[in-house]
Amino acid sequence: MELRGLGIGWRAEIDLTVERLPGVDFVEVVAEHIRPARLPESLRVLRARGVPVVPHGVSLGVGGADPLSPARLAHLAECARALGSPLVSEHLAFVRAGGVEAGHLLPVPRTREALDVVTENVRRAQDALPVPLALENVAALFGWPDDELTDAQFLAELVERTGVLLLVDVANLYTNQVNLGLSAVEALDRLPLSKLAYVHVAGGEEHGGLWHDTHTAPVPDAVLDILTELCARTTPPGVLLEWDDAYPSDAALETELSRIAAAIRRSS
Amino acid sequence: MTEVGAGAGSGVLVGGEVDDGPLFGARRDEGVLMSGHQLDDGGRAAGEARRRLGERQGAVVAALVGGGGVPEGFDAGRLRVQARSLVAKRRSVVARSRPEVAAAAGEELAVLFAAYAAERAEPPSGYRADADDFAEWLRRQGRLPAARRSPWWSRLLRR
After folding, report:
1. Residue B30: per-residue pLDDT
2. Which of A10, A134, A161, B84 is deepest in the core (most CB within 10 A)?
3. b/e burial code for range A60-75 (CB count within 10 A of at least 16 → b)
4. Quick check: A64 and B57 CB within 8 A?
5. Contact at CB, A16 and B7, closer than 8 angstroms
6. Domain A6-265 class?
7. Domain endpoint, select from B12, B43, B74
């Protein structure tokens, strides 16, 4: 089962909306929000229709130094089994350190030394999962003083060493272009897009010259342009819209999906 | 717009983790930091790299949520923006999971929550605790009515 077409993040608050929205080919669910043994009825409805559901983890901390939690890995694995998912996704980020939870996905130092640690973590995760793992590039508000590699170089190395798949978030590429000067188009040229599992798009907000990846706004044209650039470089697999709070009307979400479809079409 | 709450039925935990583990917390997650000999490959070199990474990331997290200083070489302004963003995220989760608490704070929710967060000595142990602590903070400010007195035996039913 491969991911194709348009997707949207399934959220409990908009479960009926997601079920009713035309043109939704696949969805993603935050793994930490569901119990595999008691799936929400809405996800069971979607699965009965043959809609792929991807568990998306937010707390594994693949980019961290702590050994990966066996319980969290088991949970991801159980989600994948219960949902019949073709893959599982997580982030290249750390979420805890020194025994303290950060409560957010934080950027990893882009150094060769960190790469060795993250490589080990990815292999551990892959061993524990019954389906392939895809890693997402995250949005950053800050960088590390000794960053040696770009996001894309770091991920490309990781893919080379482990065969991990990519979840390319074009809004996060945009965010890091604005905030860290990392060119989104150069990232698209560097990333091994043959390993692309699927794509994220999302809206955000600008404050004080920085881009905040809020997932509570329409996708800006600048982000859709990066999506078009990506689709010009590879056959697009599924492209998924993330909206996490302050939900708009069903019609507004439908409009977002059609804007995304149009951006994909502009690539050919 | 979908009916509020409709379909949010079995098996969904809003704003929380399945294993009730902490999203913030002073206690360590499962597992002690491993030493190099427990890694499959890379041996001592990777173990040392892991230890250093943990230290450096620990300093960043401490700066962001634990009142620690800005680590050497980092942009203090950017870390401040990140720290504020983390508070805003906690605030939105509290507002979603405890709308009555957010309503009590009214239009000043952002300012009040930021003040509450700044006053904390330690990060909360999770989003639920965060919401409870904020509610208690509001009560002390006189912005939330005191909790209704429950019968003496209700203590026996609490988790």
Report:
1. 39
2. A10
3. bbbbbbbbbbeebbeb
4. yes
5. yes
6. alpha beta
7. B74
